[in-house]
Write a structure and sequence with these properties.
- The chain has 236 residues and is α/β, with parallel strands linked by helices.
- The chain has a single domain, classed as NAD(P)-binding Rossmann-like Domain (Rossmann fold), CATH 3.40.50.
- 42% of the residues lie in helices and 14% in strands.
- It has seven helices and seven strands, in the order E-H-E-E-H-E-H-E-H-H-E-H-H-E.
- Strand 4, helix 3 and strand 5 form a beta-alpha-beta unit.
- The longest helix is centred in the middle third of the chain and has 29 residues.
- The protein is globular, with a radius of gyration of 17 Å.
- The model has no long low-confidence stretch (mean pLDDT 96).
Length: 236
C-alpha cells in the first residue's frame, strides 16, 4: 500500500485530499498546525491514517514529522505540498513579519518537506511530489504581491526539481488552482467571485484533488515539471 503525506490537511483542499486518497486505498499522513483535525471523521480509515501536528516552516518539526510517519507507515511515496497562508493588502502596508511568515509557510516549507522526502524516493527509484501553487503565481494579483511571488516561486521550484530528480524516476509537478470554494475565499461574495470566472462558477476542492490523484498514480509515468492550472478559464 502506498503512502501519501499531505501538508495543510485540516481544511479545504488538503482535507478533501486526505479523504480522497484514503478512498483510493492509500495510507495518509495528514499534517496540520493551526487548525485542528476532527479525527472522529476518519474512524472508518483509522488503520490507514495518522495525524501529525507540525509547522512545516520549521525544519526540526518537519524532520520529526517524517520520523513519526516512517515509524507508522514506512517511506513516503507521494508528497503533496499544500500548506499555505495568504495576505491581502497593499505591499507598502505589509509588515516584515507578515512577509516572513508567508514566505516561510508557502515556500520554505517546500524545501523542508522535500529535503526529507527525497532520500528514500531516490533510494527506491520512484516517487511523486505535487506542489500546490495558484493561478496568481502565473499571472499575479493586485494586493496579493507576496502571495503571488511565493506561488510563482513554487512553480520555479517545481520545474527545477523535476529536472534534478528525473534521473531517479521521481516525478515533480505543480497544480495552480483558480478560485476554489474554500474558507480562503469566504470573505468575498459568491457573485463577486463567479463574475470573474468564464465558466461562471467557482471550482470545488474535488476539482483539485482529482488532479492530485491522477498525478500521484503510478501509471502516470511520463509527466514531470508541468503546471496544471485548474481555474475555470480565468487564466488561459
Amino acid at each position: 500500500m502506498r503512502t501519501v503525506l499531505i501538508t495543510g490537511a485540516s481544511r479545504g483542499i488538503g482535507r478533501q485530499a486526505a479523504f480522497d486518497f484514503l478512498e483510493a486505498g492509500y495510507n495518509v499522513v495528514a499534517n496540520y498546525n493551526n487548525t485542528s483535525i476532527n479525527e472522529a471523521e476518519y474512524l472508518p480509515y483509522k488503520d490507514h491514517v495518522v495525524f501529525i501536528k507540525a509547522d512545516v516552516a520549521d525544519y526540526s518539526q518537519v524532520q520529526k514529522m517524517f520520523s513519526d510517519a516512517n515509524d507508522r507507515f514506512g517511506s513516503i511515496d507521494v508528497v503533496i505540498n499544500n500548506a499555505a497562508v495568504t495576505y491581502q493588502g497593499l505591499l507598502s502596508q505589509m509588515e516584515e513579519k507578515d512577509w516572513d511568515k508567508l514566505m516561510d509557510t508557502n515556500l520554505k516549507s517546500l524545501f523542508n518537506v522535500c529535503k526529507h522526502a527525497i532520500p528514500s524516493m531516490v533510494n527506491n527509484k520512484k516517487g511523486h511530489i505535487i506542489n500546490i501553487s495558484s493561478m496568481w503565481g502565473i499571472t499575479g494579483a493586485s494586493c496579493e504581491v507576496a502571495y503571488s511571488a511565493s506561488k510563482a516561486a513554487v512553480i520555479g521550484f517545481t520545474k527545477a526539481l523535476a529536472k534534478e530528480l528525473a534521473p531517479s524516476n521521481i516525478l515533480v509537478n505543480c497544480i495552480a488552482p483558480g478560485i476554489i470554494n474554500t474558507d480562503m475565499n469566504k470573505k468575498f461574495t459568491k457573485n463577486e467571485l463567479e463574475e470573474m470566472i468564464p465558466l461562471g462558477k467557482m471550482g470545488e476542492c474535488k476539482d483539485i484533488t482529482d488532479m492530485m490523484l491522477y498525478l500521484a498514480n503510478e501509471k502516470t509515468s511520463f509527466i514531470t515539471g508541468q503546471v496544471f492550472s485548474i481555474n475555470g478559464g480565468t487564466v488561459i
